[in-house]
Amino acid sequence: MKIGLRIVGIFLAFAACMAFGFFWRDLGRGQAPSLASFERLAGMQVTSSKLSGPEVFSRNYHRLLTDYIRPVKPVELKYAGIEGMVSSLGDPHTIFLPPTAAKEFSEETMAKFGGVGARLSPDPLGAKVAVVFDDGPAFNAGLRKGNLITGVNGVSMAGKDIDSIVEKIKGQEGTVVKLTVVQAGKEKPVTMTVRRARITAPTVEGSVLPKTKIGYLAVSSFSEPTAMQFDHELAKLEDQGIQGLIIDLRGNPGGLLETATDMLSRFVENKVVVSMKYRDGREEQDKTSTGDLHTFHYPIVVLIDGESASAAEIFSGCLHDYGLVTLVGSKSYGKASVQNVWPLKDRSSAKITIARYYLPNGEYIGRSVDEDGVKTTGGLEPDVPVALNTDSLVVFGDPATDNQLAKAIQVVKSKMQSP
Amino acid sequence: MNDVLKSVVAAAGVTAACLTIRWGAQLREKVDLGGLQASNSNSMWFGNWLASQSNDVNVPASEYYDQMVSLLKQYYVEPIGNDEKLASGSVRGMVGSLGDVKSLFMDSKEFHAYVNRQKGLYEGIGVSLSLELPPGKKSPQQGLQPQPEDAEEAVAEISRFPKVVVSAVVPGGPADLAGVKAGDSVADIDGHWVVDQALLDKFRHEQSLFNERKITFSEIAPLQRELRQKTERALLPIRAEDKLLLGTSGSVKVVWNRDGVTRTSTIQKGTSRMPGFSDSGGKIVLPMTMDAAQQLKGAIQGKSEVTIDLRNNPTGDYEAMAACLDALVPAGNYGQLANDKGEKPSPVNVSRGNPHPPKITLLVDKTTRGPAEILALALSSHGKATLSGSETGGDRSVRETIELPDGSGYDLVTAVYRPLAPTKSELARSLMASTVGSSTQKDSLYPPSHKATEVPVDSTTASRGGRK
């Protein structure tokens, strides 16, 4: 009897030791013992083959790190796993953005970043200045369109990739960058010292098409400052007495729904822009505001193509549904979903589709693709379809080489004659 | 009981207790395997996970995973029911990020067919394929895995695409009857262009010339137009593999490329079978499967000389290779498995072995790959066999095959086989005796016999042989 008790006692003592070891991890963290782990222990013995999702991830993550023939960076592997998981949903717009991509994305949405205020194009000697933003730091330092930037901070940029040059010129506002600049008519390159500032990139560029009374507004994205820039450029064109307008949304990947709605409020008052349907069946309508109406007493054409997406499609589809514009160009991309972005604490972010939207007339323009990734349906159908002729070099915005624009001019002109 | 004994018992008790604690902790480690409580995670942690002032950027991988799953479950536009799909997706992403043409993720259909091929059972047109990266810049990041989005975008963004090359043809199978040969590469399937890196490179080169204003637009336009037409219906390499390797009905029209010459064939899909183990006419056909390794032992028993056919051996099981090695050679060291992580290579040892090995002749050619090629190299470079035939395939990687709960799976290259550097005396011996192969060639084996006796199968072999 006494020996029996002693054996039970020893057994219990060992069991206690083992339990102590098992839950040591929790105690070390100051948590209550994890019952989930204990349950998993029991479960593991019964069905060891069926692993839960997180276990599948975790085991294979560790396997790749330890067994693969080459060294693997844990952080990159982690991000690749999360990207893969997110893309398994089959929705190209639900994406995980690792830190660097997340930074670019937020700069795009805001259309604001620390820089000198210029747009560059590739050049064998470095970078060619394509556009200098009015009143930006580069403009004030004397940089002009057509100048060549051959060096940054004393380092030659000849033969460098344009993206890497831009990356070197950009930087935190308030800091200084030295540019070596070659200007036509000057023998020696000059060094410009430019203090970086918060740059708001122009997303709307307006001009009156030569030899016409037609205004041309190229909108490159729907960012935070776009609505304001749109008003500003439109006013400039109207001051010049335009009698027709072409809004070019080709290549416009979209952006913020608020911006599109804001801009649509110039055209229609208190009207539905889109209906959004959420997962729980909840429906929400986005409407234009009242009191921002602008009178357009001239015909308007909107140019779209396969790269006009999202907010660009909402903007053009909505104006089309209310019979305010004629769509010219080629079929648009077909993105009919709304995403929300969650910034995460390691500076990455998650962009998740939270709703689908329908245009005012109830049309759903979301694209579907076949097994080879080729689009089968979706997108806005233009009223006047015309494919871009790329047999010769196209300069967008130049009717001589841009046949879609030429067509748009023709359409506006015909409407101008028969109001 | 005396005091000494008492203290010994006490010490033993304390030690046992400590070991038990350790055992418990290890068990916990095993249970969790880095994974944390997935079941009881809830919105609590959102607060500290979402962007905040905190600069703690290193969130452990499994925690990260759990949190992203919860975020999706809470907000994604469609309900997410299937955890397995998300998990397999994450593994697909991780394997894809290796950018390795030999470590590939396969969905459940692909994986099922792959496992069958290892057993010799083929569907589709009856070929085995390998992905071969063109020489030059290293590894594509995602060119291997089809993304759900546009092929067009993928073509624009990804730097290098591998070629889809036939590594072996099932004798008597549909492709064999259509005249397909190992080494043929796939150019087009059913009117879909199989993305060709050479053409992309040519275009990029012209584009940069154009950017530098060295050529005019009209000079670059025809190629641009051709590429645009092709990318409208393009097939990524893995998709191309699917079209040829999966299914037992219907037919495919394939454009093949052999040494720069293209030919088209329409091939009916069906089932076919690689020759299994056989021992007839003094020749042993040896696939790299476990049961073949078992049968090998019986087949060589009491024989003083054997010929083993290792052709049509594009894939197989490394363990089966080890079992064959064990049956064919006496105990000893037969090379090593090396990795690129700066770790010490592990030796390939045969512990029991065959103390009375027969004289072995191996038949090899470019369809001898993977475990079969390792076997050929292990035997020939250690003076245990003579090679006959032509150059081997050039794949000596050791792979693990992992299946996931939803039936998908992947291959993971864990090491590459290397014969031991031959010692001086061995080298001298092998040079003197021309029957002994001592190839230390980096990528493929050159049977010494073919120089003297065999006519090279095709011009490629001849020119490479000549360079050697």
Structure in a nutshell:
Chain A has 419 residues and is α+β, with helices and mostly antiparallel strands. Chain A is built from twelve helices and 21 strands. In chain A, helix 9 runs parallel beside helix 10 and helix 10 (257-264) runs parallel beside helix 11 (311-321).
Distance between the termini of chain A: 110 Å
Largest interface: A-B, 88 and 100 residues
Helix proportion range of chain A? 25-40%
Taking Cα atoms only, what radius of gyration of chain B do you get, to the nearest Å?
27 Å
* C-alpha geometry of chain A: globular
Count the helices of chain A. How many? 12
Specify Rg of chain A, calculated over alpha carbons. 29 Å
Strand count, sense and barrel status of the largest sheet of chain B are:
5 strands, antiparallel
Count every beta strand of chain A, where a strand is a DSSP E run of 2 or more residues. 21
Q: Report the principal-axis shape of chain B.
A: globular
Secondary-structure-based class of chain B equals alpha+beta
Oligomer state equals heterodimer
Total number of helical segments of chain B?
16
- Classify the secondary structure makeup of chain A into a structural class: alpha+beta
Euclidean distance between termini CA atoms of chain B: 81 Å
